[in-house]
Amino acid sequence: MFAAIRSELTKIVTLPGVWIFTGIILGLHVFVLAQPLDLSIEAIENMTPDGDVEVFIGLPQPAEEAVLGLLAGSSLQLSLLLPALAAVIAGQEFRSHQLASTLLATPRRGRLFAAKVLAATLCLLLVAVLIAGISTAFTYVVIRDWNPSLLISAEALLINGSFLAFAVLFALVGLAVTIAARSTLVGVVVTVALIALTMTQALTSIAPALDALTPLSAGRNLLLDPGINELTAGPMHGLIVLVCWAAAAIGVAGVAIARRDAR
């Protein structure tokens, strides 16, 4: 099993598209966070005697609440590209029609599938950790003259841990859809459609409980503060929904790779 995982990891890290797309994600993350940096620093510098700040104009908040919300929101933005990265990882063998060759080395499809999922999970987790690390670094710059120890508080560690759970679980949905459909494009399109369901608030206007069952809304419910965000469920509900999406998608992909021809 370890040999199979190592083989899959080797495939992933030697694929130029993975490095390029990862670089794009991290570069965009730095660029996006750099834009409001001065405004965020100014908001902390202008903290009121009561400890309130206005990270968003016209919305005063307790400073700790605002900073923790900033940390969670910062990581959430670009993590939405991780399912597309997962689709690139999963689609490599289908684009080059190498699955049959892989099965010669690892003929047991169940073991092969498990190795693929575990190897991809490790890579996606690493990218998610880098995203969280960049968000933490920018947040440190914002609060370094005020209360940098906030970033190692239980609340901040919970936010980062919850983010990693969301990022990997949602990305695994993109991975599994790509494997089941044997198409990178399908994997990307499906995850974009799932994101659009939340971004357009199409389901929220009909039934908030239904919207809470989509993966991006589940991520928002898991990560964001209900005091300043309109959420559709609690964090535990969000985590359960994400686990169910990932488990169901991986289950379908496992059945698909076991029953279809090797091409």
From TrEMBL:
Keyword Membrane: yes
Transmembrane segments: 12-32, 66-91, 112-143, 163-181, 188-210, 239-258
Keyword annotations: Membrane, Transmembrane, Transmembrane helix
Designated name of the protein: ABC-2 family transporter protein
Origin species: Actinoalloteichus fjordicus
Lineage: Bacteria, Bacillati, Actinomycetota, Actinomycetes, Pseudonocardiales
